[in-house]
Specification:
5-stranded mixed sheet, 27 helices
Length: 730
């Protein structure tokens, strides 16, 4: 009822007139397009059945267009049989004819072809419906663009060839090339080729449905005027192959009767199983391409599962009538939007126009010149070549352009099945090469560049400043597989040749998706190479899947030498401990001067530390009247997330770690460090927690004590603020 109300409101709105105009133009253009596609599908030995094939395609067009108009999320959409699946089915029809069904001609051959169309239509429709039911339609957004481009550009070439074949009755091949330049043959295909080329050039400058409709009407009128001028009757023109021929006395619908299915050669159908599956893939690629085009051009995000379901159910019904697969027409639908016909009425009107052609337009379609139909096919084919081969190469990398050209040539020379296989293989190989060349190292730094947040002694801090480059940290990203892992391991191995070698290599896996078996083996080789150098290999933020993958595929002795920490900070802390242990065991390079420089740095750091400690103790003595001492045992919390903190804490003894709400350690505080400095100025709930790592003592300044201190000793208050600005925060 909601749909009827929506349609009634649109009938009464200002969109009625644009819908009537756009719907009528769409119905005429795609109605005539059905004749052109029927010429592609029912060519060669089946050419006498083009008229009946047109009826089957018109029936399917009505089903596609009406269902999309009433149910699609894109208002103003037009849906109809597509060129790409039609070309594929034309190739299958030629194969069936060559197999010798009914001697390659007659009603049995036609009905076998109709049965093939029914099988393809129903199988494709059901596949689309299953995809929608499983809600996986969005996955097909990731089909490589190069495959779509190569496939569609090759389709354009095949459509052009089909146009020439329709006008001449001869398949354009190397062996028949000379026949096309004979004078009698030139008159058959020349005018149609000129018409198609001229329409293509005009439409490049101004893309508009009225131009196509006007060109068809003008070309048909000129043709019939020429027949009258030359004194050629309709029958003579039809006998000469200048007009559409077929069994028009039966009408366009029904294209066949149920009893005719008894003539089907089902063995010939079963022999085309691979072709049926290939046609289904072709139809899927076509639908994805048109849906993506609609989203990109309109800025609207469509429900892919819904559109797949609509197209699938319509395709199954249309297939039962002998129609080839179809879907949304992006070009026509977007033109309707430009005409202001973004309403469901547009598709309904288009379906009614094509229905009128199906039941009442037999004589009208029979008067269509073959040159016009062939010219339209050339026009469609040139448009696809221009869009997907020539223009696209300007926007693609040369390697992608080469893949598109390879797919185009393969399909043109060897057919769609081989072309799709070659396209998938080539695109996959190119993707692997690119991924292998992609640097999986998001960032690289040393222990000098970044430290753990653990409080270090003065000698340890000096060691980190002086020898921190012996800790090498690699922040990895993405999927690490055999190609990228090879570059990573070679990059790290160059560090093992340094003097002294790294004390620890840390691989941060927070952004790693997974490692494949070859990457695991490569990392195992790295551990073997690092062990004789005294270098430990550690992982931080490795997922459970990554750890299990390493455990299952590495020998136990190598697995036991690996180090794992929960996050980057803990990993840095472990690597720093390894560096300190290595330094305490003696200078790794035996350089006396280096150790002398280190001792001098330690002395400087110690002097600075003692000065800071003296200032801290003096300040604490003056602040003591205003501070409250607090004692905490190891593991005891100072405050938790969501609590109102009593005041700021100055750590006097011990260590306190501060964590975020997710349990990640933010920093570690020791003597002289301030924790929750804002708590003495604000009563906002805490976003962090603080935990005593060992028995510790703090001095707390409450907001009340701060106000009293400012009132009684303003100078001390200023000194406190200066200290808070300079002290390390917790």
């Amino acid at each position: 009822m909601h749909l009827l109300d929506e349609l009634w409101n649109e009938v009464r709105s200002f969109k009625l007139f644009p819908a009537l105009v756009a719907g009528t133009l769409s119905g005429v253009v795609y109605g005539v397009n059905c004749v052109a596609l029927a010429t592609v599908i029912f060519g060669g030995p089946l050419s006498s059945f083009i008229f009946q094939g047109t009826g089957a395609l018109l029936f399917g067009s009505v089903v596609f267009c009406l269902s999309a108009a009433l149910m699609s999320g894109f208002k103003g959409v037009i849906s109809a049989p597509q060129e790409a699946p039609a070309v594929m089915l034309g190739a299958l029809g030629a194969t069936v004819a060559a197999a010798g069904v009914a001697g390659g001609q007659g009603d049995a051959l036609f009905m076998t072809m109709i049965a093939l169309l029914i099988v393809v239509g129903v199988v494709t429709g059901l596949c689309f419906a299953v995809v929608a039911y499983l809600r996986i339609a969005g996955v097909f957004r990731f089909i490589p663009y190069t495959i779509l481009a190569g496939f569609l550009s090759a389709t354009g070439w095949v459509v052009c060839v089909a146009g020439l074949a329709a006008m001449t009755g001869i398949a354009p091949e190397w062996g028949t090339a000379l026949q096309f330049i004979e004078p009698d043959m030139l008159w058959k295909w020349g005018p149609g080729a000129v018409y198609g080329l001229a329409l293509f050039l005009i439409m490049r400058r101004r893309n508009s449905f009225p131009i196509v409709v006007a060109s068809i009407a003008l070309a048909v009128a000129l043709f019939h005027v020429s027949l009258i001028f030359l004194g050629i009757s309709f029958d003579d023109a039809r006998a000469a192959g200048l007009l559409m021929s077929g069994m028009q006395e039966r009408g366009l619908w029904p294209a066949f009767r149920l009893g005719d299915l008894a003539q089907v050669d089902w063995n010939a159908i079963s022999a085309q199983t691979l072709g049926v599956l290939a046609a289904t893939v072709v139809a899927l690629l076509t639908l994805v391409m048109h849906l993506n085009s609609l989203e990109l051009a309109s800025g609207e995000e469509l429900d892919m599962d819904k559109e797949f379901r609509i197209t699938g159910l319509a395709g199954a019904v249309a297939g039962l009538g002998g129609c080839s697969p179809g879907c949304h027409m992006a070009g026509g639908s977007l033109l309707n939007r430009k005409l202001g016909a973004d309403t469901r009425l547009t598709g309904v009107v288009g379906a009614l126009v094509m229905g009128a052609l199906l039941f009442l337009g037999g004589e009208l379609l029979a008067a269509l010149p073959v040159a016009v139909i062939g010219g339209l096919l050339i026009f469609f084919g040139l448009g696809m070549l221009d869009d997907w081969l020539f223009n696209l190469r300007k926007r693609l990398h040369w390697a992608d352009s080469a893949v598109v050209l390879l797919i185009f040539l393969t399909i043109a020379l060897f057919g769609f099945v081989v072309g799709v296989v070659v396209g998938l293989a080539t695109t996959t190989a190119l993707l692997i090469v690119r991924l292998a060349r992609t640097d999986v190292v998001e960032a690289e730094f040393t222990g000098r560049d970044i430290h753990s947040i653990r409080i270090r002694s003065v000698p340890e801090s000096a060691i980190l400043l002086d020898r921190g480059d012996r800790i090498r940290v690699y922040r990895l990203r993405g999927y690490v597989f055999f190609g990228s892992a090879h570059f990573l391991v070679n990059r790290i191995r160059r560090q093992l040749d340094a003097t002294p070698p790294p004390a620890c290599i840390l691989l941060d896996c927070a952004a790693v998706i997974d490692l494949d078996l070859s990457a695991v083996n490569a990392l195992g080789g790295l551990v073997r190479s690092a062990d004789p150098c005294g270098t430990r290999v550690a992982f931080s933020s490795a997922s459970a899947r990554t750890r299990e993958n390493l455990r299952r595929n590495l020998p136990s002795d190598i697995w036991n030498r690996l180090l794992f920490e929960t996050d980057l900070d803990r990993g840095l802390e472990r690597c720093e401990d390894i560096l300190f242990a290595a330094e305490q065991s003696g200078s790794p390079d035996g350089n006396t001067k280096s150790r002398g420089d280190l001792l001098e740095r330690i002395a400087d750091e110690l002097d600075r530390h003692l000065s800071e400690q003296s200032f801290f103790e003096e300040t604490m003595d003056r602040l003591e009247p205003w501070l409250e001492p607090r004692e905490y045992e190891a593991g005891e919390t100072l405050f938790l997330p969501g609590e109102i903190r009593e005041g700021l804490h100055v750590v006097v003894r011990g260590r306190v770690s501060v964590y975020d709400s997710g349990g990640v350690r933010l920093f570690q505080a020791g003597p002289g460090h301030v924790i929750a400095r804002h708590a003495t100025f604000s009563t906002e709930p805490s976003r962090t927690s603080a935990v005593a790592e060992v028995n510790c003592r703090t001095m707390m300044l409450t907001p009340v004590a701060r106000l009293l201190m400012e009132k009684n000793d303003p100078e001390l208050g200023l000194e406190l603020y200066g200290y808070l600005l300079g002290a390390e925060d917790g």
